[in-house]
Amino acid sequence: MVAVAVSLLGVRRLCRVLLFLSQFYILSGGGSLNLDLSQPLAQSIKDPGPTRTFTVVPRAAESTDIPPYVMKCPSNGLCSRLPADCVECKTNFSCVYGKPVTFDCTVKPSVTCVDQDFKSQKNFVINMTCRFCWQLPETDYECSNSTSCMTVSCPRQRYTANCTVRDHIHCLGNRTFPKMLYCNWTGGYKWSTALALSPVCCCSITLGGFGADRFYLGQWREGLGKLFSFGGLGIWTLIDVLLIGVGYVGPADGSLYI
Questions:
Q1: I need a labelling partner for 102 at 20 to 30 A (CA). Which of 8, 32, 76, 196 fits?
Q2: Residue 214 half-sphere exposure, CB side, CA atoms within 13 Å?
Q3: In what residue span(s) does the TM2 domain sit (predicted)?
């Protein structure tokens, strides 16, 4: 019995030694080994691998802008009556001036028109008179007005105006052109009022003698002269009646009477 007890005690001590060695192995060498083995696994999990980059190319937006000339073009109207801004014509500058001529025309994009049978049409023939735009009558174009030139002057002044052909008129060359025109504008002065302020008879002799007509026309220097000279003792007043009556004396701003 004693031998058995001694052997059991030896086995128990051996188990304790083995347990101690195993724990020491885990804490020293075995733990670091397990940690090193776990690092590649963690790295493989965190590494997403090669990244693919996708470039998104935006699709070209379809233009929905309406050309400005479309507003001048009547829809489903006769092609031969379209304004000049709505068509493109193959003109020939070698035609005879003043003679009738025909040109082949094509409607511009976004413009719809029909022929005499109300069928859709793109190509058509237009009839016109062979002449340049600046050779048109004055009723076929519009020009800018000038308010800086003198309308009442001798000789009569001219100014350079920018003229534009009306939409329904067809002609050769540029539809906008410069032209020398006579000064023709008004500042709101009435000829009848100016004449009524300068008579030498009735009750208005006092107003005319004190230069009321000149003050009305904006000529304050002449008005002061008449005021302090009592109308040049009536002579200046009489002369102004004649000058205003024939239209030689006008508003100081150079405009025409209304």
A1: 76
A2: 19
A3: 202-241
Q: How far apart are CA 183 and CA 147, in angstroms?
A: 8
Token match 């007043």: residue? 237
Whether the predicted model's global pTM rises above the 0.85 cut: no
Q: Are 58 and 75 in contact (CB under 8 A)?
A: no
d(CA 191, CA 209): 18
Report the SS3 class of residue 87.
Answer: strand
Spell out the residues 6+ positions from residue 19 whose beta carbon is closer than 8 angstroms to its own: none
pLDDT, tens digit (0-9, with 9 covering 90-100), for 83-135: 888 898 888 888 899 899 999 999 898 888 888 888 888 899 888 899 999 99
Copy the structure tokens of residue 227.
């005021």
Which residues, including other chains, have CB under 8 Å from residue 173's CB and lie 6 or more apart? 132, 133, 134
Burial of 225 by CB count in 10 Å (0-12 exposed, 13-18 middle, 19+ buried)? middle
